[in-house]
Every structure is written in structure tokens, then in C-alpha cells.
Amino acid sequence: MMLGNGAGMAVTMMDLTDPAQARAVDAFVLGHADGSPFHRPAWLRAIEQATGNRALLLAAVGPSGRISGILPLHHVRSRLFGAALVSTAFAVDGGILANDQRAVAVLATAAQTLATERGGLSLELRGGPAPGDPWQRLEGAHVGFVRPIAADDEAELLAVPRKHRAELRKALANPALTVEIGRDACHLRDHFHIYASSVRNLGTPVFPRHLFRAVLDHFGADADILIIRESDRPVSAVLTLYHQGRVMPYWGGGIADARRLRSNELLYYRLMAHGRARGMTLFDFGRSKVGSGQAAWKKSFGFDPRPLVYHGWSADGAQRDIDPNSARYQRRIALWKKLPLPVANLIGPLISRGLG
């Protein structure tokens, strides 16, 4: 499907069910300095499989037939939050990935055409180069946290600021706390229980259980789960992605007792060691809302925030209301926190799949 051409290149819709096309896209992402897991066919297909949000991938192709840029998208639909084309759904990064500004321009134009053809949808690009006018520049809401992984465990411990290091030492001195890493059904079960409890307490609908299985299946060895146990009880857990030297803890949390046990501190410290053993060099702590407790916690762990810039477009200038700081969203959060966990786990996936 051709969606436009210009600047000596054409924009086409890639078929991710075609192994050859999927490999070509993956090779482009893995060979690009700004590529992320969220640009990869593995992410697009896992999200589509688990949530029903259709994956669409635009590619700018030059006369030689080689890919010069891509824009991965999900068509996210929700009765509560509206519909949009998002790059990419459930991700903290994404956006246009291109070799030059010519490819950026033709992909941005093709995305606008696609959004119009699909009923006048808005577009949300989470990162990437600025598409230019008439796109909105969205900044000031989120920050990211990345720093190098230290040379060994002792150096890693010393990289943590003194106050937080004291908390971590208490966890390290607790013989009941052990670490386990895997990808099996038991790891998924324990991770989901911990994650579901954690996000319900924050007022967020839990994602579908099979989303985590789909991500592990599609990413293979590039994803796993790390669990901290107190004796046999799982108390903290995180599902992590590994990409081009980066450790990217993505979906994690702890039970109510995690604060007392300092098991979340231990969770990420052990993950740093695990990443080092895998040959990783950077620890990417993901994004947090500016001014949030989560952002403050990451900073106290020795990470400096860096602003994240997103981009948006719609024909009428309107965007979806998915800002947790909005008054309407805050009312939803307050209500969600009051739900019993079984009820939250039952209806949460039906809501969260439309958040994207």
C-alpha cells in the first residue's frame, strides 16, 4: 500500500506478517543509533496480539529499495479516551526513526494522510525528531533517566547516593531476600500478581495479563523477568527489555511490604548486575511524570532526569485526554484506588487497552 512519495523516496505500508519485510525493518532499527525496542516489529506485533490495537508501520524507501526511515504506529481505540494513531502504544519512546530529514518529512506527511483517511484521528509521536509545522511540540510533562552501568557491584553501590545506599544495604543484609530470573509461567504469574497490586494502588488500570506473555514471546532472549522473594513469597518484580547495550526495566512493582523490606531497591540493584553480566553498558530507568514521587525516587537512586519531547498533530488541534494530571483523570484515579483487587484485575484490561 503506497501512501505518498516525495524527496526522491516513496512511503509504503509494510506487511509485518511477511517474514522478509519484518526482518528488513528489524535490521534497520537495530542498525540505527536511535532505534528502540518500541520501533521493532516484536513490539508492534505483541501489542496488537494482546490488546487488539492494530499495528501499522510506514516505511520511507529510496530508489534503491532500501529503507531510509520508519514510523511504527498503533491504531488505538477507546470509548473512554477516544481514538488515535500512536507511535507506539504502551511505549515511552517511538516516533519517526530516519536517516535524514527528507525521510522525516515524507513520513510525517504520510502519517497525516493516514490519520485523515482513518476518520480524522489525532497523531501521537513519543520521541524522535521534530516533524516540523504544523505539528505540536509536547514537552515539560515527562523526564527520562539513563546512566552507565558501573564496572562491578561495589562501584554500583557507591554510585547510589548515600541516603538511598543505606536503605539498599539493609536489603543486601537480609538473608531472606533472594533473586530469581526467568521467563516461565511461574515467573509471569508472580510478576502479574505483584504488578497488578502495585498499579491498582496507584490508581491505574492493569494491563491484560497476556500482554506480558506476548512481549516475552516476541522478544525472546531480549526480555525476561526478575523477581525478589522473601523466602518463598514474591515481593518485587520487573519485566525488562534489553536493546543494543541498554537494560530497560519496563513493567515493575512491589507489594505493600516492599517498602519495609527495601526489596524494590534490591530489585534494580540486582538487575544492574544481571545487565552487566549480559554485556549491557547503560541502565535506562524509563520515564516518569515531572514532579512525581517516582521521579524523585529514581533521582535518589543516582539518576539525573532529562526532559522528554513528544509531538502531536490533529486536523482540528484536539488531542486525547490521557493526562494523569487532568482533573477528569484524577477523579478516575481516586475511584480506581477504592476497587477490590479482583474487580480491578477483571475490568482493568478492558480499560487499559484503550489507553495506549
From TrEMBL:
InterPro entries: Acyl_CoA_acyltransferase, BioF2-like_GNAT_dom, PEP-CTERM_FemAB-rel. Residues 162-299 form the BioF2-like acetyltransferase domain. SUPFAM superfamilies: Acyl-CoA N-acyltransferases (Nat) (SSF55729). This is BioF2-like acetyltransferase domain-containing protein. It comes from Sphingobium indicum BiD32.
